[in-house]
Amino acid sequence: MSEKIPKSFGSASREASAAGEAWHLFRIMSEFVEATERIDDIRPAVSVFGSARVPKGHAYYTLAEKTSRLLSDAGFSVVSGGGPGIMEASNRGAHFGRSPAVGLNIELPREQFGNTYQDISLLFRHFFARKAMFVRCASAFVFLPGGFGTLDELTEVLVLMQTGKTARAPCILMHRPFWLGLLDWLRDRLAAERMIDPGDLDLVQLADEPESVIDCIFKHYEHRSFQPRAAEREILLNL
Question: Fewer C-beta neighbours within 10 Å, C or N terminus of the chain?
């Protein structure tokens, strides 16, 4: 006959599980606290997104590097995912400019390794904490060609602005040929079938040249400060 499992065994197991979850929550909190303390002073900043798979010398890499250098020299900290590809190009351009290159690194089984052009480097275990920081510090968002991760960040930013969970800011898609098919689909499917309001398409802008990115950002902030207003700071607390 099998021995009975003591009732206390199940209780102890649940307690251990609850304790493990509690410590996990503390680790999540620590990510938010550390990141907030380190990036709150980098404003104004621009978050730049794009593929980790683009090699040095590729036209997209060059475009990202030049754009980020112009942003840095214009006084913007440049925030990337800290990894290779377009993330590296973005940090590289900013690193040799006037303003800091910031990398929000993530622990992944593959692809992600930190590039060497980060003036400020943070390491995250949780995607949601990292994504919140991309939004929290940004006065604008620049999206270069990329894959699922880039599309995830793009739709995340658009949803937050669409729903008023963050203030509207320039959301710029670089390299028109890459993005036009997606924008056509958003217009012909989502907007036409009333899955979104037609005006939601105005949340994004297209740019082909680095100088156009700078112009878009300064035009948006022509009559206001780059620093978030009190009400906008309050909104950011509820991302």
Answer: N
Angle between helix 127-136 and 7-39 (nearest 10): 20
Please count the other Cβ atoms lying within 10 Å of the Cβ belonging to residue 15: 10
Cβ neighbourhood burial of 189 (10 Å; 0-12, 13-18, 19+): exposed
Q: Report how far residue 126's alpha carbon sits from residue 151's, in angstroms, rounded to the nearest whole number.
A: 18
Helix-strand-coil split of the chain, %, nearest 5: 50, 15, 35
Helix, strand or coil for residue 173?
strand
Alpha carbon 236 to its chain's center: 14
Q: Name the residue with tokens 């009732």.
A: 7
Q: Are 210 and 93 in contact (CB under 8 A)?
A: no
CB 217 within 8 A of CB 211: no
User: In the chain, which residues have pLDDT < 50?
Assistant: none
CA distance linking residue 136 with residue 159, whole number of Å: 15
Which of 72, 74, 71, 98 is closest to 207 using CA atoms? 71
Domains, in order of start, for the chain: 9-236 (3.40.50.450)
pLDDT in tens, 119-146: 999 999 888 889 999 999 999 999 999 9
Give the C-alpha distances (Å, rounded to integers) separating 27 from 20, 120, 143.
Answer: 11, 21, 30
